[in-house]
Amino acid sequence: MTPHTLIATAATAPETIKFQDVMAVISNYYDYTPSAFTNGDVTNAAETNEGSCKIFAFAQLNKLDQNSTLALFGEFYRNDVLLHPEGTDHANIRNFMIHGWDGINFESVAITEKQPSGRLTTRTIAMHADTNAAGDIFGGWVLSQMDMAAGISAGQRAQCRVVTVALDGMSFIKPVHVGDILGVYTNIVRVGRSSIDVNVECWVRRSRIGQREKVTEAIFKFVALDADGRSMAVPQLSELPHYVESEL
């Protein structure tokens, strides 16, 4: 489930939402920082009532109305609160039912959308010609896009020809579909005498306009070569032209 589908479900089928699924969506797509917050008559210290903190922060960020926000509490709202209106448990849910958004105030920003690591190096659209029998984009095609982007980054840092010599920690996290915009982000994480390690992440924008998701990540290892194909020293930072963005 993505934030987009969760929000749609909260509006059209709120009775099907499970609290644990909401927590999973927030964990997968957002970075969370504990924050104190007030909710009507309830004061919540940072690192307490974190489920409520995450839901209110998510709903506020996505501009959900009161009913859709309450639906995100899932079975706690439907079973524990609505079926027991005289109860005193789930104070944050009950206070929000009374005070709504006027009663919510955060001390600091609690969640932010996850961001790619590194700089955008290449971007392309996944096409039908690159699909497998299941209709998803070939993993090999994605891998080739990562290798090209990593090669650009490593080549700029080395200021010469580079070759891929190893691949570490390749993870296919989610599939890529036809029509997705694939953005490849690179970040140089190590420079040796003649070697360069590049961390690569692929993120997609679903169907060109939808939710952004990380789909793969890996570390590509390169060696710098001279004109005769022998390994050569990578230049110092002070020797690089101004357009090369690197701290290593």
Structure write-up:
This protein is of the alpha+beta class. It is built from seven helices and ten strands. It has helices at residues 3-12, 19-29, 50-61, 66-71, 75-81, 91-99, 139-158; strands at 30-32, 37-39, 42-44, 104-106, 111-113, 119-125, 161-172, 181-191, 195-205, 212-225. The strands form three sheets. The chain has a five-stranded antiparallel β-sheet, covered by helices on one side. A three-stranded antiparallel β-sheet has the order 3-2-4. Strand 8 and strand 9 form a beta hairpin. The chain is elongated and about 80 Å long. The two termini are 38 Å apart.
Element-by-element helix/strand order: HHEEEHHHHEEEHEEEE
Mean of residue pLDDT values: 94
Task: Tell me the total number of β-strands.
Answer: 10
| Secondary-structure class | alpha+beta
Strand line-up in the sheet with most strands? 6-8-9-10-7
Uncertain stretches: none
What percentage of amino acids are in beta strands?
25-35%
C-alpha end-to-end distance? 38 Å
Subunit arrangement of the protein: single chain
- Largest sheet: number of strands, sense, barrel closure: 5 strands, antiparallel
Tell me roughly what share of residues is in helical segments: 25-40%
